[in-house]
Structure formats: structure tokens, C-alpha cells
Design brief:
Elements lengths: L7 H15 L6 H8 L13 H24 L4 H18 L1 H7 L5 H5 L2 H15 L7 H21 L9 H17 L6 H6 L1
Helix pairs in contact: 1-3, 1-5, 3-4, 3-5, 3-7, 4-5, 4-8, 4-9, 8-9
Length: 197
Amino acid sequence: MARAGLTADRVTAAAADLADGIGFDNVTLSALARHFGVKDASLYSHVKNVRDLRTRVALLAGGELIDEIAVAVAGRSGRDALMAYADAYRAYALAHPGRYAATQIRVDPAAVADSPAMRRTVEITYGMLRGYGLAEPDLTDAVRLLRSTFHGYISIEAQGGFNHVRDVDTSWRRAVAALHVLLEHWPASSTEEANHA
């Protein structure tokens, strides 16, 4: 029997839950329809297609992630803020693997521009990094460094790829501490870099 009361938000939330259970790449409209006990066609009045659904999950997950980060960094600055940011990021990614995978997809810039959560992500992340005295283009470079470092570490950790006896949490904290030192001593842009910009 079909379940009444489907909405775009309810469908998106269910898709996010499904992503955490079976993997983001395995979320399809057919799988979601089976979850709700409806025919695939019933979902098309709420989402356009699987790409639209995945974009909605990405935006939902991005909002959840920055909400947790915002709570963690509130009232903190410098190393404390960076560590809180990193720990909240890692905790969310490990607890919600499907949702986290959704945050890594390329989303239409128009959808990002219309998303309050994505604007909040920029505000909080750039605000933390401005505490290190950074301005553009260094802010963008620093964001890319943090994101790639966090993502790489978490991806390897989630796959069980750290086999050394050293505690993974200790290595994580040392890595974030090293990022703090780097951010405090961010290299000045060279003339050659300026010419390539």
C-alpha cells in the first residue's frame, strides 16, 4: 500500500537515510520507491530525476554538516576553532557515510547560490580562516587544503586503511595541529603565482 503524505523534503530525508545505509551511489528512484511502497512514477511529482534527488541530498547533508560545525566552533578561535571544526567534520563524515559522500559531488552553481546552508558554510569556514589573517586568494587555497586533507584522511580511515599500531585519533589531532602551524605561517604569494592568476 502506498504511503500518503510524500513531500520533496520527506523524499530527500529518506534518500539521505538510504544513502547512509546502502551507499550514496546506490540511491535510485526505484530503491526509494520501494522504501515508500509506491511506484517510481509517484516520486516524479516531488523530484525531477535522480540527479535532482542527489543534489537535494547533497544540500541537505551540507546543511547538517555545517550546523554541527557551527555549534562546535562557536566562541572559539585559532587552534581551538580549527580543531573543533575538524573534529565535527570528521565525526559527521564517519557517522553518516552516505550523506558525507553526497557533500562531495559537484552541484549546479545556481543550486549552491540559492542554498542558505551553503552560504553559511562559506561564512563560517572563511570566518575561521580570516582569524589567521588570510584574505583572497589565500582563503580559497586554504579551504582547498583543509578540505582535501580532511577528506583524504577520513576516506582512508573509513576504509580501514591505517594499519599502523599508532592510534588513529592521535594522528588526526597531530595532523590538524600541523595544519594550524601552517595556517599561522601561510606563505606569501610569489610574483610567479600572481602571473598565473
